[in-house]
Design goal:
The protein is an all-beta fold. It has one domain: 6 Propeller (Neuraminidase). The chain has no helices and 28 strands. A four-stranded antiparallel beta sheet has the order 1-28-27-26, with no helix packed on it. A hairpin with a 4-residue loop joins strand 3 and strand 4. The radius of gyration is 17 Å and the shape is globular. The two termini are about 30 Å apart.
């Protein structure tokens, strides 16, 4: 695939976590901007100021947005950014009108908690990654995969050594998790009792796997942050396509809607769209 994007918005402060809302509307986070934003009718507006660092986002069963707030961290070619103050991470709930509440703050494991990306599962629970202490990347400790019920009660499901990042349920209803430090996408069977031992789905060739999405054919589309590349894998884990993005554009996450593949580019501070004719794989809680 060629990089021929439509640039929808510029001047964004480390965009992440896009959600295609339909009719050309995209909700996304801005980590350094410390806000949840909305692109609509060729303009960007703030839905809510969040503090910390708004990272992943997803739409909940109640119509609210659930946001993984990492406490105030980004990393890229320009180096590390720390919010002032840097806080412990949490899961936040934000209504479309901008009302913010702290949804889950009592997170498992040794502090600090750094929630990164999140998704709902077939059990109506919220799954999220927590890379732990990556403000001290030279002494990075194992991260976690956690699960949260709609009362905000959180349990730890697994440890991942080298920065768990993107997360989502595939067409096979298995849980896919990116481990950025090793370039792996892992896949787990998921049940009420927890997660199975992980299996390797793929290892990306360039950059570090960050956010990802699936289309309705089961193709997994992975943003390779700090590598300026987006890769496409079929249901078997075979690399079937790739697109190189401009140097230091740093694609972080993606979603499908409106015949487009929407991509957040943290390095260039852009929300862009590529023509993409295959529909998105429906996300939970809306998946049949």
């Amino acid at each position: 695939m060629e990089w021929k994007p439509e640039v929808l918005a510029t001047g964004l402060e480390f965009p992440e976590g896009p959600i295609a809302m339909g009719d050309g509307e995209v909700v996304f986070t801005e980590i350094r901007g410390q806000r949840l934003s909305r692109y609509k009718n060729a303009s960007v507006e703030t839905i809510a100021a969040t503090g910390g660092g708004t990272n992943g986002a997803t739409l909940g069963p109640d119509g609210a947005f659930y946001v993984a707030n990492n406490g105030g961290l980004t990393s890229g070619p320009e180096g590390m950014w720390h919010a002032d103050p840097l806080i412990n991470g949490s899961i936040q709930r934000i209504t479309p009108e901008g009302q913010l509440t702290e949804f889950a703050t009592d997170l498992p494991g040794e502090l600090p908690n750094r929630p990164n990306d999140l998704c709902f599962g077939p059990d109506d629970k919220l799954y999220f990654t927590d890379p732990h202490n990556w403000e001290d990347i030279a002494h990075l400790k194992p991260g976690r995969v956690d699960r949260c019920d709609m009362n905000g009660n959180v349990e730890q499901l697994a440890e991942i050594k080298a920065f768990p990042n993107g997360i989502g349920f595939g067409p096979d209803n298995r849980l896919y998790v990116a481990e950025s430090g090793t370039k792996h996408i892992w896949v787990y069977d998921c049940s009420e009792s927890g997660l199975s031992e992980p299996e390797v789905f793929c290892v990306i060739p360039k950059g570090y796997p960050d956010g990802f999405c699936f289309d309705s054919n089961g193709t997994l589309i992975i943003c390779g942050s700090m590598g300026d590349q987006i890769t496409f894998y079929d249901r078997t884990g075979k690399l079937v396509d790739q697109v190189d993005t401009p140097e230091h554009s740093e694609p972080t996450n993606c979603c499908i809607g409106d015949g487009k593949l929407y991509i957040t580019c943290s390095g260039s501070g852009e929300l862009v769209a590529l023509d993409y004719s295959v529909r998105a794989l429906a996300l939970y809680p809306g998946r049949p």
